[in-house]
């Protein structure tokens, strides 16, 4: 029950952020940012590890001082994920983290100061094969643009980005990506659509300061979804006032819903009604919590009654249809066995994990045969 995807990705120049390709035909990368004090190395490493376990491809770390730069070096030694250093104003911090193994510099050349300082940062990036991310934000536009436009607009965001891009162009530095973020969805979408037609570099998507877990998820899903449907976007960050791990989960859910990337189980579940023959909501909550460690792609339908249950189960990898006195479990679209409500969640978890293990074993067998 799948319609062909209408999405055609925008063609962009590919850069490398550590070992992660960004742009071109590479998968859309999912990114988050630490919210710990960077000088607290242990806490920051712990958060990066949690983000990695959740599936993060890239993590950004704020480096506001030279002390934070030194701490960044210690963090870099303890984690394997590509790290982006977020730096403003002080070019010396950028030079230091370049020495310490940063994978990308999030830095706006226009706020670094004199041209010799900009040249020094660009030279360090070039020598270290370090890409630069230009990050324009509606809340921190240049004063001249604030005077020109009166308030943040999509055109103001694009003009700000092009000013920074012009600086990199003058230094013949092309390994960069760009973000143009606002908390207003339409402004953000308009800005990305406009700049996508003007440059070839990859674009990092986000709705900045989107809100809390619920409201921010909705706003980000709408804004990023509109752009991704246009084929725009090479990396994404869902900005939430919540645990950064939630940003990764929501990011993958957005990509999964558009079939742009798949990670973990895709649950198809009914909202439940009085026809349900088991507690759908509790079953779903329990399964999602128990199976968070499963990264394999799998479609699992959990439907509470026989109205839509058989149809959904037949097109899913695994499916459950509510029935009385027992529920019917489907495998590969065919009835497989009946499950009792008393042990339903335990049985479903076991059957899902068995299917994941079976698929892994099958893949390993195919790889082994091809190697021979």
Layout of secondary structure:
Elements lengths: L14 E3 L2 E3 L6 E5 L7 H14 L3 E5 L3 H13 L4 E4 L4 H9 L4 E3 L8 H13 L4 E6 L5 H7 L4 H17 L5 E6 L3 H12 L7 E2 L7 H17 L5 E3 L6 H14 L7 E5 L10 H11 L7 E6 L5 H7 L2 E4 L5 E5 L2 E6 L4 H28 L1
Helix pairs in contact: 1-2, 1-9, 2-3, 3-4, 6-7, 7-8, 8-9, 10-12
Description:
It is a single chain. 44% of the residues lie in helices and 18% in strands. The chain has 372 residues and is α/β, with parallel strands linked by helices. The chain has two domains: 15-258, Dihydropteroate synthase-like (TIM Barrel), CATH 3.20.20; 265-371, Sulfite Reductase Hemoprotein, domain 1, CATH 3.30.413. The strands form three sheets. It has an eight-stranded parallel β-sheet. Strands 11-12-13-14-15 form a five-stranded mixed β-sheet, with helices on both faces. Helix 3 (91-99) links the parallel strand 5 (83-86) and strand 6 (104-106). The two termini are 37 Å apart. One of its GO terms (molecular function) is 4-hydroxy-3-methylbut-2-en-1-yl diphosphate synthase activity (ferredoxin). Its EC number is 1.17.7.3. [4Fe-4S] cluster binds at residues 270, 273, 305, 312.
Give the N-to-C terminal Cα separation.
Answer: 37 Å
How many domains? The number is 2
Q: Determine and state the CATH class of the largest domain.
A: Alpha Beta
What is the percentage of strand-forming residues?
15-25%
Secondary structure: number of strands? 15
Poorly predicted regions are none
Helix content: 40-55%
> If classified by CATH, what would the architecture of the largest domain be?
Alpha-Beta Barrel
Shape: elongated
Kindly report the spatial arrangement of strands forming the biggest sheet: 8-7-6-5-4-3-10-9
For the record, what is the CATH homologous superfamily label of the largest domain? Dihydropteroate synthase-like
Order of helices and strands: EEEHEHEHEHEHHEHEHEHEHEHEEEH
């Amino acid at each position: 029950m799948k319609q062909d995807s209408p999405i055609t990705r925008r063609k962009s120049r590919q850069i490398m952020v550590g070992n992660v390709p960004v742009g071109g035909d590479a998968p859309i990368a999912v990114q988050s940012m630490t919210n710990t004090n960077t000088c607290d190395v242990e806490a920051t490493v712990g958060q990066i590890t949690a983000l990695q376990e959740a599936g993060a491809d890239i993590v950004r770390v704020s480096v506001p001082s030279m002390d934070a730069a030194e701490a960044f070096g210690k963090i870099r030694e303890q984690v394997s994920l590509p790290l982006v250093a977020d730096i403003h104003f002080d070019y010396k911090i950028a030079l230091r983290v370049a020495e310490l193994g940063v994978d990308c510099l999030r830095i706006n050349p226009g706020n670094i100061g004199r041209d010799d300082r900009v040249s020094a940062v660009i030279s360090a990036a070039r020598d270290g094969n370090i890409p630069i991310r230009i990050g324009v934000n509606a809340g921190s536009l240049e004063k001249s643009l604030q005077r020109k436009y009166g308030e943040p607009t999509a055109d103001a965001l694009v003009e700000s980005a092009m000013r920074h891009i012009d600086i990199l162009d003058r230094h013949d530095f092309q390994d960069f990506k760009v973000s143009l973020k606002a908390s207003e969805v339409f402004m953000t979408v308009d800005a990305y659509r406009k700049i996508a037609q003007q440059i070839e570099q990859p674009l990092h998507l986000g709705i900045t300061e989107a809100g809390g877990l619920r409201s921010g998820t909705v706003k980000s899903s709408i804004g990023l979804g509109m752009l991704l449907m246009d084929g725009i976007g090479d990396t994404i960050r869902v900005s939430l006032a919540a645990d950064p791990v939630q940003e990764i989960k929501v990011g993958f859910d957005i990509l999964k819903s558009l079939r742009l990337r798949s990670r973990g189980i895709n649950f198809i579940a009914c909202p439940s009604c009085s026809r349900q023959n088991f507690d759908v909501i509790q079953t779903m909550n329990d399964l999602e919590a128990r199976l968070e460690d499963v990264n394999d792609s799998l479609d699992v339908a959990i439907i509470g009654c026989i109205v839509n249950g058989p149809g959904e189960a037949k097109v899913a990898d695994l499916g459950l249809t509510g029935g009385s006195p027992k529920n019917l479990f489907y495998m590969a679209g065919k009835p497989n066995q009946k499950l009792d409500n008393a042990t339903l969640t335990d049985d479903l978890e076991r059957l899902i994990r068995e299917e994941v293990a079976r698929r892994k074993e099958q893949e390993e067998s195919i790889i082994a045969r091809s190697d021979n």
